[in-house]
Design goal:
Layout: H1 2-27, H2 37-47, E1 53-54, H3 55-58, H4 66-78, E2 82-87, E3 90-98, H5 100-124, H6 127-141
Length: about 140
């Protein structure tokens, strides 16, 4: 049992270190145009939503506090990249969706970012390792 704890904690530290190193590397690239990586993350997350999404549900998929996410969403709305409207099912809630301009911006940046991710990960991992990493990460978040 103690050995499993040591191994689990070493795996956790390694995962966090890899995430931090990759995030720093990707954030330093010139693919983001006039967006921050966090703003792009919100656009990307919204691009995967089949319908307008409540900010509280969006918060489950991004690494921001609820107030921080609300401020970021309203900044993106002010730039015409997302639309915010009252939730008809709950007047206190706000539904968020990409505008056509936001969808286009996400696609432009996303294509460049995807190439960068592929280049970075395939420089260190082969196809089998990438498949194993995907499988392990899916097990951790399911």
């Amino acid at each position: 049992m103690a050995r499993d704890n040591v191994t689990a904690n070493a795996a956790w530290e390694s995962l966090l270190t890899a995430h931090a190193a990759l995030t720093r590397s990707f954030a330093a690239e010139r693919v983001w145009q006039d967006l921050s990586m966090r703003e792009y993350d919100v656009l990307y997350t919204l691009s995967k939503c089949p319908a307008p999404t409540r900010i509280s549900d969006l918060n489950d998929h991004v690494l921001l506090s609820q107030p921080g996410l609300s401020r970021l969403v309203h900044r993106l709305a002010g730039r015409g990249l997302v639309e915010c409207r009252p939730d008809p099912a709950d007047g206190r809630g706000v539904l968020v969706s990409l505008t056509p301009a936001g969808r286009e911006r996400q696609r432009q940046i996303g294509r460049r970012h995807a190439r960068s991710v592929a280049r970075t990960l395939t420089a260190s991992l082969d196809h089998t390792e990438l498949s194993q990493l995907t499988s392990l990460c899916q097990k951790l978040h399911s």
